[in-house]
Amino acid sequence: MKEQILGVNVNMQSEEELMQLIDSDIRNGRKSRIVAINPEKVMMASKNSELMELLNESTYQIPDGIGISVASRLRGGEIKGRVTGIGMMDALLKLANKNSYRIFMYGAKKDTVELAAASIQGKYPKLVIAGMLDGYEKDMDKVARTINAAKPHILFVALGSPKQELFIRENMERLDVNIFQGVGGSFDVYSGTVKRAPVVFQKTGTEWLFRLVSQPSRIKRQIALPQFLFKALRAKDQGSL
């Protein structure tokens, strides 16, 4: 169940429905990868065919970003709400806690990933953190060996986009993992290094506004949202959204 937003596939299922599919993937030994789709990423993909292919060949493309939901409504689509990247990570952590699944955390700085792991373990005591590795390890064979030795069901990769998605694609077959998710700066949030937007911003889909006020330097990135909506409106008028 997917629809295309400016050429990029996006799942229409709710978070709960996606979690049922992902749990089935783990139980049946299937490999799946999750990528968060937001306006910035769609705009990048419109100029980069390799990124477009990378996004569309993923198993699950979750609608992260209020602009994706708005674009869907413009075309009469069925994407009803957002499934944020960090929201999906937390849902996977809850699933792992419930079923004692093993997770591995790869990326960010050493202190950050260690603090994030400690925070996650405290919140989800039944979850098994099988291992962790900071994002500054350059020996990809060592990274693969370390991950495989831990035998995780779920791998969270925090290398930034599109580096994390490229890592997953290039290493998916040789890693003994079921679920792969690129999580961007989520380790920073779990570690307490970066605060997530207050709940009111999360519920209204305006986390981007909170981040912009907190970090004015993000203005260049946030410009992608109005550009995306303008392009989506033009595509709708031309019947090609």
From TrEMBL:
Pathway: Cell wall biogenesis; teichoic acid biosynthesis
InterPro entries per UniProt: TagA_TarA, WecG_TagA_CpsF
rRNA-binding listed as a keyword: no
Keywords assigned: Cell wall biogenesis/degradation, Glycosyltransferase, Teichoic acid biosynthesis, Transferase
Keyword Transferase tagged: yes
Known EC number: 2.4.1.187
Catalyzed reactions: UDP-N-acetyl-alpha-D-mannosamine + N-acetyl-alpha-D-glucosaminyl-di-trans,octa-cis-undecaprenyl diphosphate = N-acetyl-beta-D-mannosaminyl-(1->4)-N-acetyl-alpha-D-glucosaminyl di-trans,octa-cis-undecaprenyl diphosphate + UDP + H(+)
Domain of life the protein comes from: Bacteria
Listed CDD domains: Glyco_transf_WecG_TagA
HAMAP family for this protein: TagA_TarA
Function: Catalyzes the conversion of GlcNAc-PP-undecaprenol into ManNAc-GlcNAc-PP-undecaprenol, the first committed lipid intermediate in the de novo synthesis of teichoic acid.
Similarity comment text for this entry: Belongs to the glycosyltransferase 26 family. TagA/TarA subfamily.
Protein name: N-acetylglucosaminyldiphosphoundecaprenol N-acetyl-beta-D-mannosaminyltransferase
